[in-house]
Structure prediction request, 508 residues.
Amino acid sequence: MDHGSGATASFWLTAPLPEYPALAENAEADVCVIGAGIAGLTTAYRLVREGRSVIVIDDGPVGGGETSRTTAHLSNAFDDRYHEVERLLGADISGAVADSHSTAIDCIEQIVDREGIDCDFRRVDGYLFLPPGGSKDELSKELEAAHRAGLNDVRLVDRPELSSADLGPALLFPRQAGMHPVKYLAGLAEAIDTQGGRICCRTRASEIEDGRPTRVHTGSGHTITAQATVVATNSPVNDRFVIHTKQAPYRTFVVGFKVAQGSMPRALYWDTLDPYHYVRIAGELDDRHDLLIAGGEDHKTGQKDDAELRFERLADWTRERFPVTGEPVYRWSGQVMEPVDALAFIGRNPGDEHVFIATGDSGQGITHGTIAGMLLCDLIVGRDNRWRDAYDPSRKSVKAITEFAKENINVAGQYAAWVTPGDISAIEDIPAGEGAVVRRHARKIAAYRDADGTVHTLDATCPHLGCVVAWNSTEKSWDCPCHGSRFDATGRVVNGPSIVDLSRMDLH
Prediction:
């Protein structure tokens, strides 16, 4: 379930996604990894280098999920801020966050060099700046917390170097990085394959059982037995409830503009708003232009359908600050999982002994996914890892109880959709290429009319925990407003936690 769909396409998908054959028989391995994104493939890569037999399965192609929709900021400038982590979890954990994200960037650089992966990896500076009217005290507080976390080379500057507008004072985070994520994953997959690992695309996990061994049942009826299983599907498809009360799904939006080559450094930029904006030069568009990509304008998944407005606001924000030209040449959205206490969940799935998860990546999926590869490999082979407690999925943070309550009250409120009218009164009113939820007696129906005029009717109940899905008119998908499951227009699941499709309904 680690792949995306929709009307928007990211810049990264100009590079082909590698395909591998589907699993066609029962299989056995030391470790089964579910999800061929950054977390899954990094875990598999490190395990095969340890001499473990590994099989990776994914419902889509390699990198076809949220990794292909990232803006690929490789950064130790933690997006939820070091002073906030310190407040919620303590100085030791804040130090582990800085250490782990810094080490993740180093790890990616080492893999690129070792495997000769041509993915435009480049070290760059990063700048955290204030919005108009922002207080410099915010930067001072974060600077002090970053230094306490061990990032002693972070410093305050009067303004980011060579920015087209005066962004004002900023924190400079040196030795950040950027790369082409799909090309990197393609190289990682090739390295896994070459070193004896096995990758199977178009293979859906339908049931995951803990035990000795673990068992992963697939939608095609085959079973994989393994001493350990790693669920790296952005949102865990093995967990019904626990982890999903501790994180929330958000849609985030990206626009890409032409910018004259040489008019800006290849730096990273972030502001301190919540939700924040993030900007970088992503690569060359032609012999005269680079591509600048800017992201932000987040909202809870399934709870808004106003992407056009968000793309427009994001484009206006970018034009005001950077020397872009014309209209956006790319635009897309992605999904991030926001943990209530800021940190990802990487380790043993709560209640399991041999099933491991990686989720809660927030806005830093590339470094979090790489941390997952290092940490999970150590746990599986029996080594200690200095970040284990920081990312433990079973951890509790008393100081995050307010955020925990807010997110779960929001989820509870979504069930009120069962007593509301539909989006429209009649299926006949749905135009071609669009969908809507329609009430039919006590049932809610998700109806989509395709380009040929054929209407596809589905049970609007998300199979995960029973929320009513909502139509996403930009991605042409059905999105669950409770825990972020997503389905294509005809009901096929494209993002967990649901592990099955929406049920078809015959209205006749």
Remarks:
- The radius of gyration is 22 Å.
- The longest strand covers residues 324-339.
